[in-house]
Amino acid sequence: MTREEYKKAVETLKKWAYAYYVEDNPLVTDEVYDKLYREVEQYEKEHPEDIDPTSPTQRVGAPLKEGFKKAKHLSRMWSMEDVFDAKEFEAWMARIQKNFPGERYYVEPKFDGASLNLIYENGLLKQAITRGDGVEGEDVTNNARTIQSIRLEIDHKDLIEIRGEVLMTKQEFERINRERQSKGEALFANPRNAAAGSLRQLDPRITAKRNLIFQPWGVGVHNLSYEFLSEVMDYIYNLGFRKPPIRRVCTTVEEIEAIYDELKTMRDGFDVMLDGMVVKIDRIAAQKALGYTVKYPRWMVAYKFPAVEKQTRIKDVVLQVGRTGVITPVAVLEPVEVEGVVVERATLNNFDYIEKMDVRIGDMVTLIRSGDVIPKIIKVLTQYRTGKEKKIERPTHCPVCGSELLDEGKLIKCQNINCPARVVNSIIYFSSKQCMNIDGLGEKIVEQLYEAGLVKELEDIYHLKMEDLLKLEGFKEKRAKNLLDAIEKSKGAQCWRFINGLGIEHIGEVASKKICQAYGLDFMELTKEQLLAIEGFGEEMAESYLEFMRVNRDKVGRLLNIIRPKAPEKEEIVESPFTKKTVVLTGTMKKSRGEIKAMLEHLGAKVTNTVSKKTDIVIYGEDPGSKYDKAKQLGVKLMSEDEMWELVGEA
Ligand SMILES: NC(=O)c1ccc[n+]([C@@H]2O[C@H](COP(=O)([O-])OP(=O)(O)OC[C@H]3O[C@@H](n4cnc5c(N)ncnc54)[C@H](O)[C@@H]3O)[C@@H](O)[C@H]2O)c1
Ligand SMILES: [Zn+2]
Question: Which CDD domains match (predicted)?
């Protein structure tokens, strides 16, 4: 990097940092930012005399947003050094261990949200300040008061700064974006931006509606006299704050690497975004001895996870016709690797979405892929536009069968029920795992059967013959026999599989199971009243189901005759101390809430969320919350998690 390039890079980083920190609307992905940041850092290391004091490497955050009252932190807030792989992490550890051998390390997730400092005095929340530039931030006290997990009052009378991350769950993020989309408002790119943007609202009523979470990770000014940070944090969590899902004290690189791997695999399972793991020296005296650079503490490091957000370009857009006829626009991308998987396509959802985001062919975009989520385009990086990008037009004719499309605004549909794409996709769906589970009847083969004219509609798969299959390319006797056997075996399947396989709009696996559980094999003759009587069924579902059965009555009847599905057996309830009891769970448990809930329900319990006089048992784990107190107050039976495991015989 030349001096000129350095100067330019600093200006670019400043522009990007401003958009990210102040406007909560990044211009590039973190990966791209971090890459340039490191180049700048490298140049500064080689040319200390050239360092621009306004360089992002020399300061925390960015200038403050206009409109908020500014407020000073009682003690400084910091940024954090990053390492991106095992080699860098081990180098960091080696540096520390050279002067401080045998230290303990406190390890917990790195939460991807917005930094917040809470000042408590006389046990009351006095002020909440965003990190800002580390010295001074925005006073968001009124907004912070609306966050449920921020205590307004604590059982600690001395002055203390409690620091943590304001987070938004992935679910809440999806909910808010759905709401914003329906109102025609701009979408948040990710939960981090959404949390930061929601915290920094001039109107606290807006913040209140966003269901934010506060996750403490440290303290500023305080007068606690513990030897270790882990003890300080125990004290803080005991004041009634949310605990991180994992926090450990360890001593060796191997232990830390093992936790890193564990967290990385569990990453998608958490309800909030984690972008890495934080490793801190646990002994406070050692922290003090190591001290700080201009920007970050020398005693902690962020060990980052591989990025799930990437930048790439949209080369083209193709249209897919689904089994219900809905046209889905799919972006063809310049291939990009995300966590070891090469992504070449991403859904663009629908045409409303395209128009709202103003995505064009040729655009540079941010793509996210996490866990089993299909890759999604979350942002158009308009700063890369050259003017040559092409608008994506709404289609008027089906790309597969050519018939005129029905444009319902958000959805565009091919209405031709004989459209090859619809037929093929409904057969693929019918055969899929969560439906009739017919082994070997996947996309390729269904297409082949359709093109050969052997299958024109769903029912035809049950009329396939050996000699037909043998005429197809790639089919020898064995393969043909396996396929025919798999199709034959699907006869007599569970009736919910049959209903689910029909692919009725709004009727998925859960709804199909409920229909069968309630009405068995009489599912074709149901009235609207009967459907609405099923728990969780609304107008839209009932209407969709009835309409489907009305239009496809003959077809479904014929299929039914061929397949003769099985009615469900009544679920057997094992008698237990929890049978017919209303149970509430509170505190951190050894297994996930979902698992425990399912187990208790299997034992015949009704698991609810709020404690009332009707509650029979409150089962508590570690650090139980207000539900525990309420149960005590109401005289509801309390049971520890261990007692529960003992009773169910899994102690
Ligand atoms: N995309 C962009 O344009 C752009 C611009 C600027 C910065 N960024 C991104 O922001 C990051 C750098 O920002 P930064 O300097 O604020 O650092 P950072 O946000 O990566 O790390 C420091 C912060 O981590 C938070 N944190 C979360 N969990 C924590 C824990 N367990 N213990 C302690 N702190 C915890 C704290 O709020 C702390 O202030 C980089 O990842 C960079 O990619 C991106
Ligand atoms: Zn069509």
Answer: BRCT_DNA_ligase_like, LIGANc
CATH entry 1.10.150.20 includes domain 431-563: yes
Q: Is 422 annotated as a binding residue?
A: no
Taking the centre of ligand 2 as the mean of its atom positions, its distance from the CA of residue 398, in whole angstroms, is: 5
Structure tokens at 621: 């784990």
The pLDDT tens digits of the residues spanning 59-72 come to: 998 888 888 899 99
108 annotated binding-site participant: yes
| The two three-digit tokens of residue 284, written as one number | 């406070």
Active-site position among 8, 70, 110, 410:
110
131 lines ligand 1 (CB under 6 A): yes
The answer to whether residues 445 and 474 touch, using CB atoms and an 8 Å cutoff, is no
* d(CA 414, ligand 2 centre) in Å: 5
Nearest CA to ligand 1 atom 39: 79
Helix (H) or strand (E) holding 328: strand 327-338
Residue 110 falls in which region: left (phi positive, over 0), alpha (psi -120 to 50) or beta: beta
First to last CA, the chain: 62
Superfamily of domain 70-304, CATH level 4: DNA ligase/mRNA capping enzyme (3.30.470.30)
Q: Note the pLDDT of residue 598.
A: 80
Identical fold between 70-304 and 309-413: no
Residue 278 alpha carbon, nearest atom of ligand 1: 31
Is 541 annotated as belonging to a binding site?
no
- Would you tell me which CATH number, out of the four given (3.40.605.10, 2.40.50.140, 2.60.40.1930, 3.40.50.2000), belongs to the domain 309-413? 2.40.50.140
> What is the rounded CA–CA span in Å between residue 357 and residue 367?
13
Which CATH code fits 3-58? 1.10.287.610
Ligand 2 midpoint to CA 457 (Å) = 15
- Whether 413 is catalytic is no
620 annotated ligand-binding residue: no
Expressed in angstroms and rounded, the spacing between residue 110 Cα and the centre of ligand 1 is 9
Domain boundaries, the chain: 3-58, 70-304, 309-413, 431-563, 582-647
H or E element that contains 364: strand 364-368
Question: Is CATH 3.40.50.10190 what the domain over 582-647 is classified as, yes or no?
Answer: yes
**CB of 363 within 8 A of CB of 385?**
yes
CA distances from 121 to 114, 159, 160, 240, 632 (A): 23, 5, 7, 16, 29
Q: What is the pLDDT of residues 394-450, one digit of tens each?
A: 999 999 999 999 998 888 999 898 899 999 999 999 999 999 999 999 999 999 999
**What does the DSSP 8-state code read for residue 454?**
S
Distance CA 579, CA 212 (A): 36
Below-50 pLDDT ranges, the chain: none
Q: What is the DSSP string of 368-393?
A: E--TTSPPEEEEE-GGG--S--EE-P
**Predicted ipTM of the assembly:** 0.97
